[in-house]
Specification:
Elements: E1 2-6, H1 9-22, E2 28-32, H2 39-49, E3 64-67, E4 73-77, H3 84-89, H4 92-97, E5 101-105, E6 119-125, E7 131-136
Parallel strand pairs: 2-5, 2-6, 4-5
Antiparallel strand pairs: 1-7, 3-4, 6-7
Helix pairs in contact: 1-2
Length: 141
């Protein structure tokens, strides 16, 4: 487990980029943090670290956004999902079998869908822009 202090959104994105650069395909990144903590900024950085140049936005209403390029990033927002069963109903296993990196916001809503080998990212607000980011299960480049 490693802890980092991010002083702004750019530093949060940079941590996401460093993490994603070393993640193998098929990795699941389970993200935890309050509304506005910076989860989507972290995923924006992940996309950049994977060499993707697409616009990354929160999939709050669509539930899933797919970012395609040389590598594939699938971005889930489980805020509106009530259980792991609902996640399986939308094809969770199919997404996992594609070999993409899956970033899951609001993971606490679907913890039963994880298999215990996920990377865990916790983002805690320390102030208006400062965040404590804890990463378990992976090393940063």
């Amino acid at each position: 487990m490693a802890e980092y202090i991010s002083r702004n959104e750019s530093e949060t994105e940079a941590l996401g980029a460093r993490l994603a650069a070393s993640l193998p395909g098929g990795s699941v990144v389970a993200m935890y943090g309050d509304l506005g903590a910076g989860k989507t900024a972290f995923v924006r950085g992940m996309a950049r670290g994977m060499g993707l140049t697409c616009r990354v936005s929160s999939p709050t209403f669509t539930i899933v956004n797919e970012y395609l390029g040389e590598r594939e990033l699938i971005h889930f927002d489980m805020y509106r999902i009530g259980s792991a069963d609902e996640l399986f109903d939308i094809g969770w296993e199919d997404y996992l079998n594609r070999g993409a990196v899956c970033a899951v916001e609001w993971s606490e809503n679907v913890e039963d869908a994880f298999f215990g080998d996920e990377v865990v990212v916790r983002i805690e607000k320390l102030g208006d822009t400062e965040r404590k980011i804890t990463i378990e299960g992976a090393e940063l480049c």
